[in-house]
Amino acid sequence: MSLPKPGPMSLVPFVSVEGMMQLILQQGVEGMLVDLAAYIEDDFRRWEQFDKTPRIAAHSPEGVIELMPTSDGRSYGFKYVNGHPKNFQSGRQTVTAFGVLSDVDTGYPVLITEMTLLTALRTAATSALVAKYLMPKGARTMAMIGNGAQSEFQCLAFKAICGIDTIRLYDIDPNATQKAVHNLQGKGLTVVACKTGEEAIEGADIITTCTADKQFATILTDNMVGSGVHINAIGGDCPGKTELHRDILTRSDIFVEFPPQTRIEGEIQQLPEDHPVTEFWQVVTGATKGRTSDRQITLFDSVGFATEDFSALRYINELVRQSDAFQKLDLLADPDDPRDLFGMIERYGRGMDAA
Known about the structure:
alpha/beta; 2 domains; NAD(P)-bd_dom_sf; 11 helices; Ornithine cyclodeaminase; Rossmann fold
């Protein structure tokens, strides 16, 4: 007698890290970034359909662990993600993540996937999507300050989506900069390694800051930022973690994902609660304008929001239907009689004995 096999409703597609790398290579990094940006943009257009709540965070002295849930009424998605800046000292990732997409009608998960790689991709896709609406006309050069795990994805997203052709790199760790220079070779970009932040922003139309320290930091001072630039501030994402001097914020038109979350975690935690900001979805739908003048400083105060991860999960769920880059997990109990979980165990035990 053979052991009982998983029932037809037991199995859930699971995309591992290896499976995600296969999908990325099949689509191409830039192709995947462009596709992700399109899914994210579509979901910003239907922003009002989503359940929205600030992410649920458990903070510690060393970092943060967060859950990021949302639903559009048909599907439900969440991401588990951590941020631990000191992890790299022990050979670990600063950010790791996984996610689940479920069917609202049944509550059954339809996809489980790694999201460490996917978060890097969706963060970069979101940055470039926003910049497409806010950057100065004809922008070609970006300063990339902070050359860690996210930097190459950001650079390639801005190339593919915004037409950036020159990247000026700076990190307090020269080895991180050299790593990024090496990885970006042959990718169709002019890459310049810089020795200071001030050098990196020379001639830059866009400034991206992506640093990891969990403290009130000043990566950009007020005198470093001239008129007409777009700032993509993506490193600040929890209370006490910022990158920009407060005076830059007061000179900028600030665009955010979800104000109740950004006021707690973003650069604007430095400002009064009533300081005006614009929600990016309103720019996408045409309800309000983005960049309005050549001299305007636009600032995307990005902390990442659950709808962006939902978009990424929705995209991967479509990709795996056309690919074999996934495994089937025996995740859900599927007894012959839905009311007889105990009997399922008994029958499995008898099968074990017979085998």
